[in-house]
Amino acid sequence: xxxxxxxxxxxxxxxxxxxxxxxxxxxxxxxxxxxxxxxxxxxxxxxxxxxxxxxxxxxxxxxxxxxxxxxxxxxxxxxxxxxxxxxxxxxxxxxxxxxxxxxxxxxxxxxxxxxxxxxxxxxxxxxxxxxxxxxxxxxxxxxxxxxxxxxxxxxxxxxxxxxxxxxxxxxxxxxxxxxxxxxxxxxxxxxxxxxxxxxxxxxxxxxxxxxxxxxxxxxxxxxxxxxxxxxxxxxxxxxxxxxxxxxxxxxxxxxxxxxxxxxxxxxxxxxxxxxxxxxxxxxxxxxxxxxxx
Length: 293
Fold this sequence. Notes:
With 293 residues, the protein is of the alpha+beta class. The protein has helices spanning 6-27, 191-225, 231-255, 263-268, 270-292; strands spanning 32-41, 46-55, 63-68, 71-73, 79-81, 90-91, 94-98, 103-112, 118-120, 122-124, 127-128, 134-143, 152-155, 164-171, 181-188. The longest helix is centred in the last third of the chain and has 35 residues, at 191-225. The N and C termini lie far apart (132 Å).
């Protein structure tokens, strides 16, 4: 007799389990979306726009935002702040409710300097090691109402096509901020872009420096033997002087929006070196002509 009611009991248990799972899923329903747009960045500051869209009318509610300062590793392995900072929460004042879609949009725009904006690596102050430079910014938001933001990485809109941007939201509550979310913006180059640009820059810089060294050796050899300088030395040096500015103009479109990188002084240094080769060569030729006269 007990086996007659076994299928019914199984059906009841399955229905109870499905209802419980529905309740658990409904408790974590995503009702808000966060998106970020980087308007500009140059290694020293970043201008961004953050939008948080949530369901319902929350025009009278409040949402605060905090920008986390950058950190560097000390010799002891601990994390220390790069600058003396105070934890400041700012209220997002740009709030618009759209009745047609029943959504409230919180918008926040801000410009962060190097005390909060992480960009590196830097070989010299202000000069990033392109194309290995990465940029990052960390934000925290604390709403006055319960929201569930869609977590996970998403695409961050950028002002430059040379970079890839990602945006990630994570629920990060603590004892004093039970509704806090951590938002992270990351900007870097694609691996294929890094490989192609590095190959191009290393090959170009190596070639022009090898040619410059060869020109100096040829010039020194002619001066030591008191011979006439080969006309090809002046011709190649003149070509290098015109080539470097043309290369810098073409290179500027690749490194945009960065103003200067470590490659710029390395390439520009070739111009005065080749100018010295031309000047010494011409003076040596004039001296040789005067001696003949």
